[in-house]
Amino acid sequence: MIDFEFEFQYAEEKTPTLQQVDGHIPKGQCVVLCGGSGCGKSTLLRCMNGLIPQFYEGELKGFCRLDGKDTDGLSIGEIGELAASVFQDPRSQFFTVNSSNEVAFGLENHGLPQEEIRQRVDEAFRVFHLERLKDRNVYELSSGERQFISILSAWAMDTDIFLLDEPTANLDFAATQQLKAILLALKKQGKTLLLSEHRLYYLADIADEYWVMANGEIKGKYTAEEAKAFSEKQMHALSLRTLDLEKIAVSAKTKPSESAPQALSISDVRYTYGKKASAIISDVSFSVREHEIIGLVGANGCGKTTIGKLIAGLYRPSSGTINFYGKAQKLKQLQKQILFIMQEAEFQFFTNSVLHELQYGHTVTTEFEEKAEALLKSMGMWECSQRHPFSLSGGQMQKLTLMIAYLSDKPIIILDEPTAGQDAASLERCASLIREIQKDKTVVIITHDLELIAKACDRCIGLSDGCVRAEFSVQSDHDLQEIRRYMERFRPTEVQQIQIQHKELFHPATKLLFWFVVMVVISTSNNHLVFAAYAALLLLTAVDGWIGTALAGGVSFAALWAANALFPHTVFSFMLVLFPRIIAIGISMRTLIGRNEASRTLAALRNLHLPERLIMIVAVIFRFFPVLSGDMKLLRQSIRTRGAFLTLRKKLRAFPSYIEILTVPMALRVIRIAETLSASAETRGIDLRLRKSNYLSLHFSVWDIVFYVLLTASIAAGFIL
Q1: Three-class SS state of 348
Q2: What is the per-residue pLDDT across 670-700, written as a single tens digit (0 to 9) for each?
């Protein structure tokens, strides 16, 4: 089924990433690529799916045959007809906003008839018992649910080969168990599976062979039986994580003194998001002793991260108190005393190199430089010291955030999933560094990583539905298995969420025309024309169901008009000219991408037979609008928790630096995700020279005719006035 032999060197690298790598995988087998970070696992998968050298440039030698077909000379999309790819981060590979549209995307690229696409999409959700995820906004799904959608998208392509790159890197315990069930189902269907993975325990009943890589070579190929018989010493030598959770041993720890003071105590804390009636966090109470390491465990959505951000002063509790050494603290006080290290590492980097990131916020003395150098060497990252943080791998980013925590002057550290995507050696380094942090700090770890709990935690707090449900000591192997059983209790909810379906009145082409006209009109100096188009846009927005948006736009314009009438030839005159233009852009974009409109708009562009590359650029833009406010929120939280610009005075004094920190990481994140999104689109056939089809049916209605007339009339009125 799969035969290959590769040598490869990236264009910007001085040494080969892959050296004489070869292998054969029979039909229906599951092979797991494992080994330390940077050993070449992801690069090998890219060579197979054609992203190397067609997308990621470099010198490639060798061959690859998938199902007996030589991939040489095939485009990435043509290779995608033989092997489906699933990327590590599901947030970065979605082309559309709606989950059903996402599953259909590859089928559209292959030009299947609309009815066949719909049948295939329905079958994908049904076969894997994931009907609850149909027609959902992908940005409202958990990490696990997003990864399931990416796997369904691959399955819908009806290939016999699946290439998966660390599919559990962002999944919790329950989601990993469900992914295991999906992979077992694929194997029973006769699919051939090749996975790159650090977490191995969930693959024990699936894998036929484990191929261990190091320094760009496959150092050993072991059957499942041989791997299960490995001693702890052999596993450590090969940098492999455990294959059996029951065999994890708790590291020897010094039990914290019972007389140690309470560094942190949380009393009856409640928290409610927005205007929701039910609290996300309900009367949570627990305490942490000085120099203690505790873990917060539980299923995704149980409130672990929310509690961490409440403790760090990034959220304001609805009720209750958070005490630091017995004294109740306000938000600013908590922010000064507690550092919150987010799971989203890329939001926490403010400088242009790894070394500068460690120095940020510190007085750089010779002693500090020596300490930072020793730290980088101990974490295996000294060679990366001059690299930009955004050029690091996901695992290296996680290690960098942990080093930032180690060098912090704050006495309490909260770590959110610090070992996501870490190999065995990196996990050991991280656990050792956390124990070093413990010597002069108190640590709270939000995690579902049982191996990290065994190596680092003194105690665990079990959470469920926003409440503390259990408390565990971590002093023996029996304690650890109790925590495991607690984590295994949780399953992703099978309750079908009721979706309120909004009936779209307008064809997306109508909204696209409005958007185009608005863009042209606001670039003119004819204010009456702008006001006429603005009025037509507000009316369309209201009829389309965005009553609040239309009302806000109308009230804003009326207020500016009134202010200008009362105070002519003042700043209000300038505002009346500028602000309606800015507001019109925002409103028109919302009508194009709100609800399920992003998918419908892309379908309309495809019906217009525009170049797929142009449609992909539009998709990337649409991809960021729904999440931009959330990403900016995370970035501002990172700025606050790292102690930068805590006061308005500091922001004003260093305004250019503040703006740079707000914009540069976001721009680099956009570039990073756009690259992954483009790669995902390539593997799913966006480059195929076929007549594309659409999953969605689009129809013009009488409303479209009415508003074409309205638009024409408003433009005419603007010119007449």
Answers
A1: helix
A2: 777 778 888 888 888 887 887 888 888 888 8
Give the CA-trace dihedral at 704, 706, 712, 716, to 10 degrees: -160
Query: Which amino acid, 665?
Result: P
Q: Where are the alpha helices (DSSP H) in 189-240?
A: 224-228, 232-237
Is the Cβ–Cβ distance between 657 and 642 less than 8 Å?
no
- What is the residue-wise DSSP string for 38-63? TSSHHHHHHHHHTHHHHTS-EEEEEE
- Beta strands, E only, 436-572: 442-446, 459-464, 467-473
Cα separation of 482 and 693, whole Å?
52
CA-CA distance, 192 to 66, in Å (whole number)?
Answer: 10
Other beta carbons within 10 Å of 24? 13
- The DSSP 8-state label assigned to residue 342 in this structure reads -
Q: pLDDT grade, residue 209 (50/70/90)?
A: very high
Give the pair of three-digit tokens for residue 551: 């009302």
The pair of structure tokens assigned to 569 is: 């030839």
Instruction: Find where tokens 């089809």 sit.
Output: 693
> Cα 88 vs. chain centroid, distance in angstroms?
9
Q: Which two tokens stand for residue 558?
A: 């009326």
| Angstrom distance (rounded) from CA 82 to CA 590 | 38
- Taking only the tens place, the pLDDT of each residue in 563-607 is 999 998 888 888 988 898 999 888 888 888 877 788 888 888 888
Report the candidate in 628, 631, 507, 533 with the shortest Cα–Cα distance to residue 585.
533
CB atoms within 10 A of CB 670: 16
Q: How many CA within 13 A on the CB side of residue 192?
A: 15
For residues 646-656, one letter each, b for 16 or more C-beta atoms within 10 angstroms of the residue's C-beta and e for the rest, the string is eeeeeeeeeee
Entry field: residues in the chain: 721
Q: Helix 508-522 and helix 597-607: axis angle, to 10°? A: 90
pTM of the model as a whole: 0.86
Spatial contact of 164 and 193, defined as CB atoms under 8 Å apart: yes
Residue 718 C-alpha from the chain's centroid: 46
Which residue has tokens 């039910």?
278
**Beta-sheet pairing, 30-35 with 209-214:** parallel
